[in-house]
Amino acid sequence: MNKGTDVMSLSRDEMETWMQQQSYPKYRGTQLFESLWRQRLAGYGQISAWPKELREIMSRTAPFYRLQAVTVQKAPDGTRKILARLSDGQQIETVVLPHHYGYSVCVSSQVGCNMGCKFCASGLLKRTRNLTAGEMLDQVRLANDLIASEEQGVSRVDLMGIGEPLDNYDNVVRFIKMAHDSHGFNLSHRKFTISTSGLIRDIYRLSQEKIPVTLAVSLHAPNDALRSQIMPVNRAYPITPLVEACQFYFAKTGRRVSFEYALLAGINDSVLMAQQLAKLLEGLSCHVNLIPWNPVPEHPFSPSPPKRVEEFQKIVQNRGISCTIRKELGQNIEAACGQLRRREDAAHHIEL
Predict the structure, then answer these.
(1) 195 and 159 in contact (C-beta within 8 Å)?
(2) Would you please indicate which residues are annotated as catalytic (active-site) residues?
């Protein structure tokens, strides 16, 4: 067996082929996939359907590493924020969120992020590497383990954690397809949301994948001048071609595009900005998600007052565009992605 095989990132079909290549029956691959993701077993030793000899051989020749929860914070509303350690010692964040329909999990796709958005905590942590499909799947497993006592499982997955998902395109698509497998988490493609800062080429690419996920575009400004100031990615992927890509995505998938808009006091929350946003999105099948910004100490912004948020919403809605204000969950814990990891890293460096 190849000791370098990343078992946790193999699809079920690949596991079946891989086991056959090792002279084992094809069904052993299905059993392994189910053990990893449906049963969420911690190691080969727990696969009771396997003979002892096979469990021992696999443990030696194809070991795998489960994410380890370093810190788990729980807010009064039931939100859990997890700082998890990867096999190489790097750390990521995963958030489990309660809703009326059950639980969603906010998954990280990279260790750090290179997009450099001026209001984002994740952008303060430069990308170290991409996460594998298995590491993203294991965040869902970890979330399911945390809520297992409540006899519930994750029913939605949002790729909105640390990192730019479309900057890790191949692994993200592989992750979604594996999580969709009926022998694993059995999650509908329609229960996935991919958040992007606007990598236009990959939006077109995603539209051809035949996986009807929800696309959420982090817009945060209605014109190029302001967006380029607070989101450097706009210099490479400006607003007009970005909106055209979103129109194409809807035409190919039938999935309404969401636009994320974090309201920053005195920066992007004026009446004029609301009017510009409504005009920009006029005629597009979309939804605007207004986000009360979570303050990040390193950034010189303030959240818009609730009254201003409501006024902004009304202006957009009055132009016939669906617009809601995101419910604030996870208060009293480091709510913005990247804050918990930065705090833990700082504490670690002080100890050293």
Answers:
(1) yes
(2) 93, 337
